[in-house]
């Protein structure tokens, strides 16, 4: 593969992950972290970039995204992928991207939600037009849209470096005590690890479309693509963090990262800044919707034999419909599912690294147990995040479950299961070797 093609796929991968939410998270966190913002961003990068990067590397080693769950019972395998891609697709992330694109890219100029329906139809039609030709994905996103997006972000960031609009505020209490830990938690809550599972379909298929058939070569190219993605995304997060850390003069009382970016853009460029931020948001959301539509259609074509074009049409139609129920309703209905699915996906990645993924076609009871444990404790974390646990239940969980307050109570139980499986495997091997001696 030519270096230019490889770079374009790396650029495409960066753009697939860079949704509006990824631009909004770091500014508020950095503002709250104050003088500790760089330390907090360091923790943030470990999970916000590290987990997706690790996921893509594991999928590259497996040579196919669906091999991640190949040894689960068929019903569980199909259920996992259906829920992941539906949640990341028309049930949550796709309509949220459309709604956020309207909220930040169009609403500031029209002043109401009256145009959301027309906008969603146009936006989804454009998504369909660009997603329906997967062979052209690198050309559209990697070679055209991503460079344009990087250029617009660079304009905003360079202006901030030349003319910062304030100094750092004192760190809030949580960032005074544990900036790295809170950065880690905020990075995990981007939930990009679950997105990496879906985007794995797109990235692997894109590399294979360039004539790469050898699995070892595929794994090598995935590594290089991930290096490009991780570098660009880390720089982007650092830049957004810098904007938040230096926003004290114009956005000291901001309640979210979007508000900080809006005020910063206006402070640097006046009315033109709003147009710049709108263009960045629209482009970031569009690249994400194209990628997720492609991932969904790719899965349904490979698994159920449904034509790519037909799947893409249904997905974008559903997205346009769901996006009109309102952002709050979308989040309320679908967020619990993605909060549960993310721990399962990460647990599968950890299990693949720790236990391997042999080519046996039999069902793996070990992997099934890991998924069940991750789902149970992930559900507990989801209820805690959504404020659905009673105070008594929370007190018991805080006392007995490690990392409960950090919203990763599933982590310790999953590792316990993995260690137990490794121990049993070692005992079995020694038992099998002993008679031979």
TrEMBL record:
Keywords: Amino-acid transport, Cell membrane, Membrane, Transmembrane, Transmembrane helix, Transport. The chain crosses the membrane at residues 7-25, 37-59, 80-102, 114-132, 144-165, 185-204, 225-245, 271-292, 312-331, 337-356, 368-387, 407-427. One of its GO terms (molecular function) is L-valine transmembrane transporter activity. Pfam families: Branch_AA_trans. Its main location: membrane. GO terms for biological process: isoleucine transport; L-leucine transport. It is found in: Cell inner membrane; Cell membrane. One of its GO terms (cellular component) is plasma membrane. It is a multi-pass membrane protein. Component of the transport system for branched-chain amino acids. Belongs to the branched chain amino acid transporter family. This is Branched-chain amino acid transport system carrier protein. It comes from Photobacterium damselae subsp. damselae CIP 102761.
């Amino acid at each position: 593969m030519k270096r230019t093609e490889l770079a374009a796929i790396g650029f495409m991968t960066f753009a697939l992950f860079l949704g509006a939410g990824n631009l909004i998270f770091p500014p508020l966190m950095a503002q709250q972290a104050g003088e500790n913002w760089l330390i907090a961003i360091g923790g943030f990068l470990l999970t916000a970039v590290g987990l997706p990067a690790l996921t893509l590397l594991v999928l590259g080693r497996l040579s196919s995204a669906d091999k991640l769950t190949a040894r689960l019972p068929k019903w569980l395998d199909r259920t996992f992928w259906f829920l992941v891609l539906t949640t990341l697709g028309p049930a949550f992330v796709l309509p949220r991207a459309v709604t956020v694109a309207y909220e930040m890219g169009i609403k500031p100029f029209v002043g109401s939600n009256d145009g959301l329906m027309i906008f969603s139809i146009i936006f989804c039609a454009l998504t369909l037009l660009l997603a329906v030709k997967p062979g052209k994905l690198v050309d559209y996103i990697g070679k055209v849209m991503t460079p344009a997006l990087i250029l617009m972000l660079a304009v905003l960031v360079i202006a901030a470096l030349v003319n910062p609009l304030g100094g750092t505020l004192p760190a809030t209490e949580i960032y005074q005590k544990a900036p790295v830990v809170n950065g880690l938690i905020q990075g995990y809550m981007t939930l990009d690890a679950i997105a990496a599972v879906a985007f794995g379909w797109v990235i692997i298929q894109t590399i294979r479309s360039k004539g790469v058939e050898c699995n070892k070569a595929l794994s090598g190219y995935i590594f290089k693509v991930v290096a490009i993605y991780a570098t660009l995304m880390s720089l982007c997060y650092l830049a957004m963090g810098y904007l938040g850390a230096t926003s004290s003069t114009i956005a000291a009382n901001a309640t979210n990262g979007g508000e900080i970016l809006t005020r910063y853009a206006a402070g640097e460029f006046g009315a033109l800044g709003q147009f710049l931020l709108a263009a960045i948001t629209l482009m970031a959301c569009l690249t994400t919707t194209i990628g997720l539509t492609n991932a969904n259609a790719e899965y349904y074509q490979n698994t159920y034999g449904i034509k790519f074009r037909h799947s893409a049409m249904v997905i974008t139609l559903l997205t346009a419909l769901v996006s009109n129920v309102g952002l709050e309703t979308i989040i309320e209905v679908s967020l619990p599912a993605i909060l549960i699915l993310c721990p399962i996906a990460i647990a599968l990645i950890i299990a693949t690294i720790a236990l391997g993924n042999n080519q046996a076609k039999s069902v793996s009871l070990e992997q099934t147990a890991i998924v069940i444990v991750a789902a149970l404790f992930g559900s507990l974390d989801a209820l805690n995040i959504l404020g659905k646990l009673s105070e008594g239940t929370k007190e018991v969980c805080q006392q007995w479950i490690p990392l409960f307050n950090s919203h990763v109570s599933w982590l310790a139980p999953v590792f316990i299961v993995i260690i137990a499986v490794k121990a049993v495997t070692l005992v079995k091997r020694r038992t099998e070797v002993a008679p031979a001696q």
